[in-house]
Amino acid sequence: MRHSGRRVKRATVLAAGAAVAGLLTAACSSPDTTGVEPPAKDWAQLRADAKGQSVNLFMYGGDKGANAYIDDEVAPTAKKLGITVKRVPVADTQDAVQKILGDQRAGKGSGGAVDLVWVNGENFRTGKQADLWLCGYTGLMPNQKYLDSTDPTLTQDFGTPVDDCETPWSRAQFAFVYDSAKLADPPRTTAALTEWIKQNPGRFTYPAPPDFTGSAFVRQILLARAQDEPVPPAYSKKAYETVAPGLWKDLNALKPALWRQGATYPKDQAALNDLFANGEVDMTMTYGPAEVPALVDKGQFPPSTRVFVPEDGTLGNTSYLAVPKNAAHREAALVLSDLMLSPELQYAKARPGGWGAYTVLDQERLPEQWREKFASLTTPETTLPIEELSRNARPELSGDWVGPLDKGWKQEVASAP
């Protein structure tokens, strides 16, 4: 997710994981039997029913660009359709999934507090396994015609089939951020990056998993080792036991050269950004490189800030919008999902000076006026165009990998002497 996700975000995910597992077991063993009626499958009727409804949109609250985009662009546009958007910030998307699972366990088959979730990866998979999501509606959405239905990055979410249970919303690409005034020529490969870290002690660190960005960095290092030890996309204990020891060895080899010698790590991406802004480290990292120009414009990052991706490629993913089955305002949530896929709001999301997040729309399928608008978008020199960012992009592993890798990092790296 973002991010969806990463937008994957963050410090409490391991503790919360046990709670989710318990709720998932209960949800799967005690399915909802309230028999709540699905909304009508006539789009005109859905739009009519949506008028006057409020949508509780649960989303990670730590992305200021995303928050401003929802408040300043999405909410006013939705208001024209008679829909009120209430943005509900959460520290981790898992918090929203827990809330839905808790309602399900309590037998609350309708009137749920969560109407719409910005989601991807393991959180979508967890909800799908527990039968939380309203499925079978995305094909009705008028703006779906602007998507490439054959694009595997839109049909698979961290290895989990989407199966018409969520709507693509935004693309993300993992990247590194540096100050070109201090580092004229950044490392060209992931292997060169690890060598640079060792040769420049104290000038690099990464957020502690399970922070989404820190977790993505660990997976980036894992996949960069794939020439020696290929990583199966689907998780298994055998696969983990095959590839994880080498990963922990590599990450532990970096510890003495990290900021504070790896004795402590930033708690999240925001904390790492602060270290970079204060000049304590020479790099930060992000799953949303389109946000960098705004951070420069606001004065948080210096004007000499630039983005780079190793030539061997970085992780990429798509984040989505999902409607819980028990949502109190399902009609409005579905209509809002489609609205947020519209060329108008996808363009507002992508333009420099706004959030700057990458569109999921296939521009060849757009009307000419919107093709021209998207083509006119310029990429500030402080970041890179999506074509360059996504060159040699690596698909995310199955969401089943995330938890074991986060837990393994804590045991084998953070706790290692």
From TrEMBL:
Cleavable signal peptide: 1-26
PROSITE patterns: PROKAR_LIPOPROTEIN
Keywords from the named record: Signal
InterPro entries for this protein: SBP, YnjB
Pfam families assigned to the protein according to its UniProt record, in alphabetical order: SBP_bac_8 (PF13416)
UniProt keyword annotation of Transferase present: no
Descriptive protein name: Secreted protein
Species in which this protein is naturally found: Streptomyces coelicolor (strain ATCC BAA-471 / A3(2) / M145)
